[in-house]
Amino acid sequence: MILTLEEVKNYLRVDLEEDDNLIISLIAAAETYLKNATGKEYPEENEQGERIAYELEKVYLKLLIAYWYENRSTISQNKGASGGVPDEFTYATRSLLLQLQL
What we know:
Blueprint: H1 5-12, H2 20-38, H3 55-70, H4 87-101
């Protein structure tokens, strides 16, 4: 697991435990999305047994989870000009994902 529940709750500024199951599901979905999008595996440790930080991946995952968390309804209130996700979100996450794919 790249992210912990605590890291994501801190990023989302969620103090209550009511949404823990939802957030855990979003973490799992986001990490699966990242693996599928990049075609890479993300082991917890390197060959020397040291924990891998994955800082850029964490930024991407937090942005993705925050977007999914804040836009849980079937109709988004914050659409971009094309009617989809906001342009700022799309640009930032596409740029990060492109770097992660390389």
